[in-house]
Amino acid sequence: MPDYGSGARADKEASMAKKNKSGDDKKNNEEKVELFSQLSASARYSRTLLSRQLLASGLYAGQDAVILALDANDGLSLSAIADQLGVRAPTMTKTINRLAAQGFVDKRDSETDARLSHVYLTDAGHDAVKSVRKAIRKSQKIALQDLSAKDVKSLVRLLKKVEQNIASALG
User: Fold this and answer.
1) Pairing status of strand 76-77 against strand 117-121
2) pLDDT, tens digit, for every residue of 91-100?
3) Low-confidence ranges of the chain (pLDDT < 70)
4) Nearest 5 degrees, angle CA 90-CA 95-CA 97?
5) What integer pLDDT is reported at residue 110 of this predicted model?
6) Is 116 helix (H, G, I), strand (E, B) or coil?
7) How many CB atoms lie within 10 A of CB 80?
8) CA 81, CA 122: separation in Å to the nearest integer?
9) For residue 56, what pLDDT is reported?
10) What are residue 76's DSSP bridge partners?
């Protein structure tokens, strides 16, 4: 075997280390892709499960968040609900109109600003709060059935950290 000298040997070792690092980077990137794929799939399935649970009370996907927002602060404006839930105003208008048609909310013009409408839960809406919370509890029980309390606590902590990292990166 020829002796290439210490400089050539160091170059060869550096080249091999670079290849190994490249392989590690590729593996890390694949794990990141898998993570996002898994997060998306888990979110999609959890939303589908919750939607099925909500149907029993006559609610559709997305309406649960509005019901809970109004339970926490009845009389919010449409734009305040949209901002709080991170959706566009036209989307919220459609959701509120549907909830009103179903009898869960009452939309009233603002007494101080003619451009605003405020949304209030009806008696049926207040009853729906209990159904929404029950659907959430049942869905969470199904989703977390084989996890220990410690695992659930860790999962929630980690997901919050992932959310913070992404929110920070998005500004």
Assistant:
1) antiparallel
2) 999 999 999 9
3) 1-32
4) 95
5) 81
6) coil
7) 16
8) 17
9) 87
10) 119
